[in-house]
Amino acid sequence: MALLEEHDSAEAVSIRAVANAVGVSSPAIYLHFADKDALLDAVCGQYFDRLDEALALAEDDQTHPLDRVRALGRTYVQFALDHRAVYQFAFGHTGSDGTPMVDEALRTAAFNRLAGTVRELVDIGWVAEASSGVDEDAHTLQVALELWTVVHGVASLMIAKPDLPWGDDLEVAESVMRSGCLGRALLPVVGERATGAEVERFVDDVRSADGHRAK
């Protein structure tokens, strides 16, 4: 990971450079990896493992699943920004077996951690249960994918367009994750196909009941 971050490009990282960095000969590298592609596969795996370690620490002191989801989103973006080159490579790389690494990401402990927290949100009623005839696991996966899309999109845009007026990166990350969770919670209440006018009436009713009607 360090060499990829240093050179900012997988093409610039050679077997010889890796060997020099770890203090062995180039042939010694081939005792562990068949070729450079296999080595790069391992780099991607290391990225996802370290990401999961960071996510585990982030959610460790959060008791409510909603707070955990927000912490996971914030940490996901922070980790991506801290490892920009590896993040971009990991999600754009095709493994030596022909499998895109973005597909592999869905099988990592990091993604499963998010999906598990989404399952808890369903269990407590924050996220609606699966519709009749829809498998619960498939429903959980769908919601987890929606939330992952949110933070993955934010991280990717912040890396690709750092000059945009993002404000505080992590506050933005937490805000969009919170919005995604709140939106998911409100969908069954407002109606998944509610019109703009219907949503506006719902919001006004809530504000009115709470003494905060918009003027």
From TrEMBL:
Q: Which Pfam families match?
A: TetR_C_33, TetR_N
Which residue windows are coiled coil?
A: none
**Record has Transcription regulation as a keyword:** yes
- Listed GO MF terms: DNA-binding transcription factor activity; transcription cis-regulatory region binding
Keywords of this protein's UniProt record, alphabetized?
A: DNA-binding, Transcription, Transcription regulation
Domain HTH tetR-type: where?
Answer: 1-51
Instruction: Quote the InterPro entries the UniProt record gives.
Output: Homeodomain-like_sf, HTH-type_TetR-like_transc_reg, HTH_TetR, MT1864/Rv1816-like_C, Tet_transcr_reg_TetR-rel_C_sf
Q: Which residues bind DNA?
A: 14-33
Lineage: superkingdom:
Bacteria
List the protein's name: Putative TetR family transcriptional regulator
